[in-house]
Amino acid sequence: MNNSKNFRKAKKNDIWRKANGRCAHCGKEVKRARTLDHYIPKSAGGTWDSRNLFPTCRSCNEMRGSRKIDPRTYYRYATEEAIYDALEYEREFNANRK
Q1: What is the pTM of this model?
Q2: What is the mean pLDDT of residues 30-34?
């Protein structure tokens, strides 16, 4: 495996630790079909910054689509630190759009 793939795999694993290996929305332990949900959707200008990404199972990610959510209530199984980071990302995102 090349360094780029190793980096992506390590980053994805770090993001999955935000909810201790569970879907940040439903709490289901996910071993396969692990997806990353953009808190601020890509369609709204959200980026691949790790603070903007939450681990979700495929069904929760597809169910949400690109609608706006409150991370404090939607990502019920995420760590407090992950929620804080997402809100910080949102403040920076909004400040840069002005």
Answers
A1: 0.87
A2: 80
